[in-house]
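To close the chapter, one final illustration. This time we ask the reader to focus less on the individual chains and more on the assembly as a whole: which components sit near each other, and how the overall shape emerges from the parts.
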Amino acid sequence: MKTINTRRTIRKYSDKEVSDELLDRLLTEAARTQTMGNLQLYSVVVTRSMEGKERLAPAHFNQPMVTGAPVVLTICADYNRTSTWCRNRKAEPGYDNFLSFVNAATDALLYTQTFCNLAEEEGLGLCYLGTTVYMPQMIIDALNLPKLVMPVATITLGWPDEQPVLTDRLPTASFVHYETYHDYTPEDINLHYAAKEALEENRRFCEINNKETLAQIFTDIRYTKKDNEAMSEGMMEALKKQGFL
Amino acid sequence: MKTINTRRTIRKYSDKEVSDELLDRLLTEAARTQTMGNLQLYSVVVTRSMEGKERLAPAHFNQPMVTGAPVVLTICADYNRTSTWCRNRKAEPGYDNFLSFVNAATDALLYTQTFCNLAEEEGLGLCYLGTTVYMPQMIIDALNLPKLVMPVATITLGWPDEQPVLTDRLPTASFVHYETYHDYTPEDINLHYAAKEALEENRRFCEINNKETLAQIFTDIRYTKKDNEAMSEGMMEALKKQGFL
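The assembled structure is written out below.
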């Protein structure tokens, strides 16, 4: 995993195909990731057809990676397969509840990240679409997901056709605590965010958007309270409809 | 990541120390993992003291790995640091809602899995404790977690002092779907679970527990409806108390 220190999110892909063999190997190897009771509470929907990508695109705000990537993977928290297994084996499943969603989502996300690590080590480029949990019902409909299956992650995948600059990270001391959590003083915040705020691109970003601080870009434009509250409701409704609440 | 195909969960650790330098490097490298808006919505609490481990142990059903490991990491979904940054920068954060918990938990879990992959590649052994979401309030209290911080994963970490057998996995075809989700027929279930059910250790497991099927071990003993429902409530209460609901 020497690739970890130079990894970038890749949004533009070359025409080179991602072979079925390679994809299958990566999907298989990623499954070595630990899961709850070794139940593997996830499933992956592979979308290669343009028709399928076009059905998914609106749920991801029509970001061009969705139709532009040779492969789109939608990773789902899945208690349907396990529950079906139980019912077929004289066992009564009790997984239609919130904790079971959390358990299955955890399995699905850990699986997803091992897949990402493996794919990037192979030289593939990918973009993780956080939009998956914004309007999950659209994805549920597009992929025909039954009860107890919830989409939690989407990966667009292909061979890189760009090499963006390496993005910044907060200093490790900003997110690591020893023994107990030590809450942040204004001085801590200044220290931890100084480098990020000083970045030329972030200063330009503030200028273009007419904002005094970088933080305002997040609170006023990118991730607003209003949007978050509306999408929280949509997520809750989808969880209910899928039988997890 | 050649280690992926031979990885095992490690619950017994040698006396060899995990150095601060190595731990810090792994915690830093794992942070190359993509996060929402590059906000890194997570934090890690490192527990090395016996006192700290003993405070955490009950939340993990006193499994011996917690006090037996040289290092315990509790990884948290964290919107506190980002919200504090916002408030200190004339920006009004709107992250006290369910979607924001999902976003931060996602960041935290992806970070966790890259950490696991890096640590295992280094030769370290680890055990992922799913118990973290069972009684989160106990962990919140033990680690003094403020509002908008929720524990989502725990890793016990050390140099391996055992080499357990490789555990089984379901066939890849059981969890990969093409274009849309194809629900499982009884024949599919038989096909996908045949190898798991035929394993000598699983047959013995049924015998010891006086169960007719392996699935009943899960529904009747390991992950019961009653426990799941009680823990769903505890999780919801903790989310409310931490300000995410």
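The two ends of chain A are 39 Å apart (CA to CA). Chain A touches chain B through 112 residues (CB under 8 Å). With these observations in hand, you are ready for the problems at the end of the chapter.
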